Amino acid sequence: MTTEPNFKELPSYITKKGEEFMSNGQLKHFIHKLNVWRDQLVYEAENTINHIQEDSAPVADINDRATIEEEFALELRTRDRERKLISKIDKTLHVIDIGDYGYCKTCGIEIGLKRLEARPTADQCIDCKTISEKKEI
User: Fold this and answer.
1) What is the rounded distance in angstroms from the CA atom of residue 9 to the CA atom of residue 40?
2) What is the rounded radius of gyration, in angstroms, for the C-alpha atoms of the chain?
3) Which one, of 86, 101, 97, 95, lies nearest residue 39 by Cα?
């Protein structure tokens, strides 16, 4: 039986006086935060695979079988969303590698540490994101 790894939530980054935006300390913080989040999602995906393999024995009662199949479908939809999130995390780690992390892809201004803490994969400032969401409606 495997034990669950410790995915401890990181505290928010506290800027030092006079620290530049996206300093090495900040970048290391977000790289760590993104990697922990990614590892969590991969761990959950592996658990789902194991759970489905272990619990997929034939069930005689049609109602029980329908319930199990619906639970599996719900888990798989959740994992599919998480798979997309893993891809977004990988893309964000690449953006860090090329030196563009923390800056809005639309207007180029700083996204802001509070927004990045809440949504480390954010690639737009709040103003540009709000505008793009309004255009989607």
Assistant:
1) 11
2) 20
3) 86
Dump pLDDT digits (tens) for 18-38: 999 999 999 999 999 999 999
What residue spans define the domains of the chain?
Answer: 22-101, 103-137
Q: Which of 48, 47, 69 is nearest to 58 (CA)?
A: 69
Q: Is residue 12 within 8 Å of 112, Cβ to Cβ? A: no
pLDDT for residue 4 = 64
> What are the CB-based long-range contacts (under 8 Å, 24+) for 103-107?
103/22, 104/128, 106/132
Q: How far is CA 56 from CA 12, 79, 95, 134, in A?
A: 41, 17, 40, 44
Distance separating alpha carbons of residues 85 and 77, to the nearest angstrom: 13
The CATH architecture one would assign to domain 22-101 is Up-down Bundle (1.20)
Please state whether the predicted TM-score (pTM) of the whole model is above 0.70.
yes
